[in-house]
Design goal:
With about 350 residues, the protein is of the alpha+beta class. It is about 25% helix and about 20% strand.
């Protein structure tokens, strides 16, 4: 029962059917005695659960998000990425078929371009950038969680914040990546040629370490690096001051903001959002790293008020998974570590 209960109900019958079929074939060949749990599991790889899933996960039922209707879509034939022009010389590269709904940004200048994050690494983001610009592309990451660095290895020049967290994550990881392709994390088909068995965040080489205040000159466009620790120690925002654009990474996006992991520092996070909120009067657009690419600058002062109020005990709280709770206030959701129950 435990084995079958782990499968979604729509596929339980199919799993049972394939078990029966495999056992029948084993009897015919005189190999029934050799059938072990491992051999059945290996044979079932011929029929991956993701391909048998008939019901959409809850998170993908509202897709496509209506906010995208007002944006200019480019490269409409790409099977994995959706690409939108969100400002002059700025393209949002969105991954709607995976639960993170990660958004990377290509920011193009006269001489070179910056790719702010490289996504999940499930499909070829380098190929997308070559279709959008012929200029050299350098990579900057908003931070180094796996859903933002998956394509780093494809690029020859990658900036990195000078932190131990960045160095550790640059070594790559298989465990985190594998969790991203569980059946309930996918909406639609994986790209042709993608091998889920070998999927991992590949290691990459950091070409140049940077710090707060570093500036990237793209030619006719400058991007300022703002250190915004909190979500992670190496979190940054990118400020295009001349054009009034602020790329916030995972410090702000319109979905439950993850602030529960061991590397999170809530005090630092509050200070970081205060820093970004102070820029609101000079901004035209705020561009986050998940779900929807554009927001009004007025969201930033509200974000400060919301997280401070939540930390003082205001707002509503509901379970957010094992050891986590979702705190909600004024349209913001924060996924925090659940309060530990005191022992009697």
């Amino acid at each position: 029962m435990t084995f079958f209960a782990s499968f979604p109900k729509p596929v339980q019958f199919q799993v049972i059917f394939f078990h029966a079929l495999l056992l029948f074939l084993g009897v015919l060949s005189g190999a029934a005695s050799a059938f072990s749990a491992n051999s059945v599991s290996s044979a079932l790889n011929l029929f991956p659960v993701s391909s048998l899933q008939t019901e959409k996960p809850e998170w993908c039922k509202p897709l496509p998000r209506p906010e995208y209707k007002s944006l200019q879509r480019v490269l409409p034939d790409d099977p994995w990425f959706e690409v939108y022009k969100v400002a002059p010389g700025v393209f949002a590269i969105y991954e709607p078929h995976q639960a993170e709904e990660t958004i990377s940004y290509l920011i193009v200048g006269n001489k070179q371009a910056v790719l702010f994050d490289t996504g999940m690494g499930i499909s070829d983001i380098h190929k997308v950038t070559t279709k959008l610009t012929s200029r050299p592309v350098v990579v900057l990451n908003s931070h180094t969680h796996d859903d933002h660095v998956g394509g780093n290895w494809q690029f020859t020049f990658v900036y990195g914040m000078d932190t131990d967290f960045t160095r550790k994550n640059a070594k790559g990881s298989r465990e985190d990546a594998q969790a991203e392709i569980a059946p309930d994390q996918l909406c639609g088909e994986l790209p042709k040629g993608f091998n889920p068995k070998t999927y991992a965040t590949k290691p990459w080489r950091i070409s140049h370490f940077i710090h707060d205040g570093f500036t990237v000159n793209l030619g006719g466009r400058k991007l300022e690096v703002l250190s915004t620790p909190g979500h992670t120690p190496d979190s940054i925002a990118l400020l295009d001051r001349a054009n009034g654009l602020l790329f916030t990474g995972d410090t702000y996006y319109p979905a439950p903001i993850w602030l529960f992991r061991p590397e999170t520092d809530l005090d630092a996070y509050v200070n970081s959002v205060k820093r970004l909120a102070a820029l609101a009067p000079e901004l035209k657009l705020v561009l986050g790293a998940h779900n929807i690419p554009v927001a009004e600058p007025s969201v930033l002062p509200r974000l400060v008020n919301a997280i401070q109020a939540v930390r003082s005990g205001q707002g509503t709280v509901k379970a957010g998974g094992e050891g986590k709770a979702i705190h909600s206030l004024d349209g913001f959701d924060f996924l925090l570590a659940a309060a530990k129950k005191e022992k009697n």
